[in-house]
Design goal:
about 85% helix, rod-shaped, mainly alpha, single chain
Length: about 190
């Protein structure tokens, strides 16, 4: 019996599947302390880190949206400036065309005026040369008429007044015949002698 009693009074080995209340309470206290420490120090750091990352991501998205809006605004401004430049270029082209047309008209007008002036000057010079030629011819015709008359009559015509009146009458008769011939009529030939 001794052995049975000894067997019953000997300490028992702990049951690995059994429940040890003091150890459980100690583990529960350590777990609670760890939970409080993690909740007080570690969780806020993680939350802060997560918040910073979230802000960085959201801020990056927001900055990207702002950059995209700015790019769209700049593109719209560029297109407006381009349209304005095209309109201004078209206006400059039209102005240049109008100016060129005005210059052409001015040059044409100046050329016509210059042409008219040259024609008028030519007509004046022609008239002056005609009257000079007529004067020279009158003098020569007068001399020739006197010489011819002297040969026909056989005497010398010394009276200058008579000679001059005879020549003038002869030339007037020639002018009447030329104007009458130009107008379609025929003139009479009248000779005058001294």
């Amino acid at each position: 019996m001794n052995s049975i009693f000894l067997a019953q009074t000997a300490p028992e080995e702990p049951n690995p599947l059994g429940f040890n209340l003091p150890e459980f309470i100690l583990v529960l206290i350590i777990f609670g302390l760890l939970f409080l420490l993690i909740r007080k120090y570690v969780v806020p750091a993680f939350e802060k880190s997560f918040a910073e990352r979230r802000d960085a991501i959201e801020g990056g998205i927001e900055r990207a949206e702002l950059a995209q809006a700015e790019a769209a605004r700049l593109l719209e401004q560029y297109n407006a400036q381009l349209a304005e430049a095209r309109a201004e270029a078209a206006q400059i082209r039209e102005g240049a065309r109008a100016e060129a047309q005005r210059i052409v008209e001015d040059l044409r007008s100046q050329a016509q005026e210059e042409s008219a002036r040259i024609v008028a000057r030519g007509a004046e010079q022609l008239a002056a040369q005609r009257s000079q030629v007529v004067r020279e011819l009158r003098g020569e015709i007068g001399i020739l008429a006197v010489e011819l008359s002297e040969k026909i009559v056989g005497q010398q015509l010394a009276d200058d007044a008579n000679v001059r009146s005879t020549v003038d009458a002869f030339l007037a008769d020639i002018e009447r015949q030329s104007t009458a011939g130009a107008s379609g009529g025929s003139g009479s030939t009248a000779g005058s002698g001294a």
